[in-house]
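Researcher: Quick test of sequence recovery. C-alpha cells follow.
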C-alpha cells in the first residue's frame, strides 16, 4: 500500500510516495537525494542480518546470512528505488531481534522499543502489520499466554498504533483523509481475483527469493535449513534466566 501524502512535481503531476520520501521531495528535486534513504537503509540491512544471525546461531551462519543479503538481487533492487521497502526490511529484522530479547527477558525498555520500531514500520508501509502479528504470536507462544504477557501486548499495540496515528497526522492534514481511505493508486483484489492468483504466489515468491542464487548454493542452503536444530529451545533460555535472577534475588535477601 503506497503512502498517503501526495506530492506535486514540477510537471504538476500527482505522485503517491512513501511519507519519508515526501519530505525529501518537497525539499529537493535531486533523484540522488530521493534515493539516498533507501540505499542507506538497504546497506544497514546487511549488518542487521549479521546481528540477528548471531542471536540465533554461530558466527559462520551469521556471516553466511549477511553475505546472502548483500548479494540478494531483490534487496539490491529495493535499495535503489525511492520507496520504503528497505526500511520495512530493517524494521522487521529489528522487531524479530527485540522479540527474541522479550522471550528471554521481558523488560519495559524492550517493550517500548518494540512499540517504537513497529510504529516506524507501520508508517513506512502498512503491511508491517503481518510482521508485527507474526512476531507477537511467536513471543506469546514462547513465553506462554499468561496475563502479564497479554497485558503487555495490549499496551504495546495501543502505543504503536497511537504513535503511527501521530506520524500520519501531517499527511492527513495536508492531503485529507481521502488520501488514506480512498487512495486511487491502490485497489484491493476482488475475491475471485485473489483466488485465481493465489496458486501462482508460491512460485512468484520462490523465484524472487532464489533469483541470481547459484543452484549448488541453493541446494546447500536447503539442506542446512532442513537439518538445523537449535541446541536449546527459547523456553529453556527463559527458564535459565529466570532461575539466575531468582538465585541472585535470594542471595541479595540473605545479605
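Model:
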Amino acid at each position: 500500500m503506497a503512502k498517503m501524502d501526495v506530492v506535486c512535481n514540477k510537471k504538476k503531476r500527482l505522485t503517491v510516495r512513501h511519507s519519508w520520501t515526501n519530505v525529501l521531495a518537497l525539499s529537493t528535486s535531486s533523484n540522488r537525494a530521493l534515493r539516498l534513504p533507501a540505499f542507506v537503509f538497504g546497506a544497514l540491512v546487511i549488518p542487521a542480518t549479521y546481528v540477528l544471525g548471531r542471536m540465533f546461531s554461530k558466527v559462520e551462519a551469521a556471516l553466511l546470512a549477511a553475505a546472502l543479503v548483500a548479494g540478494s538481487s531483490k534487496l539490491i533492487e529495493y535499495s535503489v528505488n525511492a520507496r520504503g521497502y528497505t526500511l520495512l526490511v530493517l524494521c522487521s529484522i529489528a522487531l524479530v531481534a527485540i522479540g527474541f530479547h522479550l522471550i528471554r527477558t521481558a523488560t519495559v525498555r524492550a517493550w517500548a522499543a518494540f512499540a517504537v520500531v513497529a510504529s516506524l514500520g507501520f508508517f513506512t508501509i502498512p503491511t508491517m502489520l503481518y510482521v508485527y502479528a507474526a512476531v507477537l504470536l511467536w513471543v506469546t507462544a514462547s513465553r506462554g499466554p499468561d496475563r502479564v504477557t497479554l497485558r503487555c501486548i495490549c499496551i504495546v499495540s495501543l502505543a504503536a498504533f497511537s504513535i503511527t496515528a501521530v506520524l500520519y497526522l501531517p499527511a492527513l492534514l495536508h492531503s485529507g483523509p481521502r488520501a488514506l481511505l480512498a487512495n486511487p493508486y491502490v485497489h484491493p483484489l476482488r475475491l475471485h481475483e485473489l483466488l485465481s492468483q493465489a496458486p501462482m504466489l508460491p512460485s512468484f515468491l520462490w523465484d524472487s527469493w532464489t533469483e541470481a542464487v547459484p543452484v549448488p548454493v541453493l541446494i546447500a542452503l536447503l539442506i542446512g535449513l532442513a537439518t538445523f536444530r537449535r541446541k536449546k529451545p527459547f523456553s529453556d533460555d527463559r527458564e535459565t534466566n529466570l532461575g539466575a535472577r531468582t538465585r541472585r534475588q535470594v542471595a541479595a535477601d540473605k545479605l
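The longest strand covers residues 6-8.
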